[in-house]
Write a structure and sequence with these properties.
Elements (H helix, E strand, L loop, with lengths): L9 H6 L11 E3 L6 H6 L4 E5 L2 H12 L1 H13 L3 H13 L3 H10 L29 H11 L2 E5 L2 H5 L7 E4 L19 H14 L4 E7 L2 H4 L8 E9 L9 E9 L2
Parallel strand pairs: 1-2, 1-4, 2-3, 4-5
Antiparallel strand pairs: 5-7, 6-7
The protein binds S-adenosylmethionine (SAM).
Length: 259
């Protein structure tokens, strides 16, 4: 995916394709992140959102003018060095722009997005493992075409879910709540109360819509889903979310869905 993002769910789409071959009116993804499922699914009608404004502004720029975004990022990548990385990071923190966001995302440590308590992006420079930008201008145009069917919004999950009508499909991938796991995508932390509010809304929406939810497989996550409509499937997934060798463990995720 063009934007690297912690918690990418590409594996979910590849390993469980049957969960995505369903009929629906509008596709909703309120915790978009890098949008791995959205770009693989390519829905005809979608509402996608995230609370991170820089991420969302970057997707909007990709949708509206993919060629300019590509040329601007390519220029930044072509002149990349450790020194320029920190200059660009300061520039981004003073005056954020989509091309700076994408440049930092592609060249920072592990593609992580983290902010300090005053909301400044503070991830150090990454180590090169392959090309910094393994995409062409045509790839950017392709991603823009996929985004042309989507309404892209910077907002919290409850605002997005308030737009769900009937026979819609909602893929829900909130940050993990477990202690010490990677759950800070910005200065705001997704809390257990947020998870409670989210699932109570999903219980309500499950009467008339198809819902797929993924998270750590924990009893206090499962027990929030109330009613016989919910199916639970435990899946093992290797993760390297911490970016360290030690942090590269297998963890149990749960898929919860009602169709
Ligand atoms: C696990 S990631 C989603 C990863 C995505 N499925 C992918 O494949 O890249 C969770 C996302 O939730 C977003 N988020 C955190 N709190 C939120 C909130 N209150 N409302 C909406 N999005 C939020 C984070 O910015 C992050 O992008």
């Amino acid at each position: 995916m063009i934007i690297k993002w912690a918690g990418s769910k590409k594996w979910l789409f590849k390993r469980h394709p049957h969960l995505f071959t369903i009929k629906y009116n509008t596709y909703f993804e309120p915790f978009l992140g890098g949008g791995s499922i959205f770009f693989l699914l390519r829905p005809k009608n979608a509402c996608i959102s995230d609370i991170n404004e820089h991420l969302i502004n970057c997707f909007k720029a990709l949708k509206e003018d993919p060629k300019s975004l590509y040329l601007d990022v390519k220029k930044l990548i072509d002149s990349h060095s450790e020194e320029t990385y920190y200059l660009r990071r300061d520039e981004f923190n003073r005056s954020p722009k989509p091309e700076l966001f994408l440049y930092l995302n592609r060249t920072c440590y592990n593609g992580i997005y983290r902010e300090n308590s005053s909301g400044k992006f503070n991830v150090p420079v990454g180590k090169r493992s392959s090309s910094w930008l393994p995409f062409s201008q045509d790839d950017f145009v392709y991603f823009s075409e996929v985004l042309s069917n989507a309404n892209i919004k910077q907002q919290s999950f409850l605002d997005t879910l308030s737009g769900v009508k009937e026979n819609d499909f909602i893929y829900v991938d909130p940050p993990y709540i477990k202690e010490n796991s990677f759950r800070e995508y910005g200065k705001d932390v997704f809390s257990p109360d947020d998870l409670g509010d989210l699932v109570s809304k999903l219980n309500e929406l499950s009467k008339n819509n198809k819902i797929l939810f993924s998270n750590f497989d924990l009893p206090n996550v499962r027990e929030l889903f109330v009613g016989p409509q919910w199916k639970f499937q435990s899946v093992e997934q290797a993760t390297n979310i911490s970016g360290t060798k030690k942090g590269r463990t297998k963890m149990k995720e749960v898929l919860i869905y009602n169709y």
